[in-house]
Design goal:
6-stranded mixed beta sheet, alpha/beta, Rossmann fold, disordered C terminus, 295 residues, 12 strands, 6-stranded parallel beta sheet
């Protein structure tokens, strides 16, 4: 069954937002699902302006994908929120419930788990995760850890005081967490003992530590442009496995599409569209659909 003309609208909001690949994913999904009349656009909007934007959106709007710097504001403005959004302390998804009410979710968590499982993450019981950096992606990675069977995380930060939000997030989901100052840590030992190493900082920030970090057996490098990163190249050269931020983008979008449309995401069509839009720089393997957890 196809959606009649005059369908619904959705968008990605953020600042800057011109570079976002979300329209590629959502437009491919709507086409594959036969949702004629559905549209998806980019809207330049920061966190401060987000409440005003939501007040202007009528019932034709199904939902919004929220990127930086509006994720914390998205959680604050929503009348309802999923447990994982509250645990992360931010939301990348707003779904309109009607009468001007919105539900916040963090499908970024599914982005992390989906990317790792699709890349073949085997699980290492008892091993900790090592998280490089404590910025915007760190909390979603931490909330994803219990779903991967990981109960401990070591946060490696340039300035440990800035890692407090990540440590608080870990406490909310029952993950044991410690923080170490990057300059004083044995990154080679941390990487070698890790169940998974998650890099959330730019390639230039890890450049001096690439040889030591490359001993990690499994790496999620959220940086994917330009590709390959020096860290990814070194890990692959040693026989390790790498998942990327582009894999995360793909897997977090599946749940957004499902929440906006009420239909199962056409995963292969979305994957193929993203591969084409990015010059097929990555294979973008798919993790089998599980239905997700939006509670």
């Amino acid at each position: 069954m196809t959606e009649a003309a005059g369908g619904r609208r959705a968008a990605v909001v953020g600042s800057p937002v011109a570079h976002s690949l979300s329209p590629v994913l959502h437009e491919a999904a709507y086409a594959a699902l036969g949702l004629r009349g559905w549209s998806y656009q980019r809207i330049e909007c920061d966190g401060e302006a987000l409440p005003g934007l939501l007040a202007k959106l009528d019932e034709h709007w199904a939902g919004l994908s929220v990127t930086m710097p509006g994720k914390q504001a998205a959680l604050a403005v929503a009348g309802e929120a999923t447990g994982r959004a509250r645990a992360v302390g931010a939301a990348n998804t707003l779904v309109q419930l009607g009468s001007g009410q919105w539900r916040a979710d963090s499908t970024d968590v599914e982005g992390v788990t989906g990317a790792l499982l699709a890349a073949g993450y085997p699980g290492r019981p008892g091993g900790p995760a090592v998280l490089l950096g404590a910025g915007g992606t760190a909390n979603a990675a931490i909330v994803a850890l219990p779903e991967l069977g990981i109960e401990q995380v070591m946060v490696v930060a340039r300035e440990p005081a800035r890692a407090e939000p990540a440590l608080e997030c870990a406490r909310r989901v029952g993950v044991r967490a410690d923080v170490v100052r990057w300059a004083q840590s044995d990154v080679a030992a941390l990487a070698a003992d890790s169940a998974v190493l998650v890099n959330t900082v730019p390639a230039s920030a890890v450049e001096g530590d690439v040889p030591e970090l490359s001993v990690a057996p499994f790496v999620l490098d959220v940086i994917y442009h330009p590709w390959p990163t020096p860290l990814a190249s070194a890990v692959l050269a040693r026989g390790g496995t790498v998942a990327t931020g582009l894999d995360m983008l793909l897997h977090q979008a599946f749940s957004q599409v499902e929440q906006f449309t009420g239909r199962s995401a056409p995963r292969e069509a979305m994957r193929d569209a993203l591969r084409e839009a990015t010059g097929e720089i990555l294979p973008l393997p798919l993790e089998p659909a599980t239905g997700g957890n939006r509670t």
